[in-house]
Amino acid sequence: xxxxxxxxxxxxxxxxxxxxxxxxxxxxxxxxxxxxxxxxxxxxxxxxxxxxxxxxxxxxxxxxxxxxxxxxxxxxxxxxxxxxxxxxxxxxxxxxxxxxxxxxxxxxxxxxxxxxxxxxxxxxxxxxxxxxxxxxxxxxxxxxxxxxxxxxxxxxxxxxxxxxxxxxxxxxxxxxxxxxx
Length: 181
Hints:
The structure is a single chain. It is built from seven helices and five strands; from the N terminus they run ββαβαααααββα. The protein has 181 residues and is of the alpha+beta class. The protein has a five-stranded mixed beta sheet. Strand 2, helix 1 and strand 3 (57-63) form a beta-alpha-beta unit. Helix 2 (73-85) runs antiparallel to helix 3 (89-98) and helix 2 packs parallel to helix 4. The radius of gyration is 16 Å and the shape is globular.
């Protein structure tokens, strides 16, 4: 099966972390890893994408920590989910990418404190790995959809090859908008 044939097997739903309007013409889903340098670059590009196509694109982030090469990525994903449970996912998302080389447990805790999370709840949820199953589910739906590396993007359910640069993501969004507009 080539990359063009891969489809998103799990549509965006109410439990996903989403930016942009629900009824946007284009939905972009990223499977990412907080310790991945390419994902850090992609985070900046996604912000530009959302600015350029304001009110036309909705964006969802899903976890795909590459544990074998990024030893802190799984814990960082769980910390993002813990922050998300307190309504601060995107703030934690940004902090994790800004501080990508500092993702050990004590660093994650300091980011949670900086975001003024309920620290008793954060600590209990992290100690009990409350969000591990959710992260594993993201990984499983990613694999089912053909994700092998990060970042991997889907535009309206179709995998988008960005291996030659994130310009391809902008072009794919523009093409969908031109067809629908």
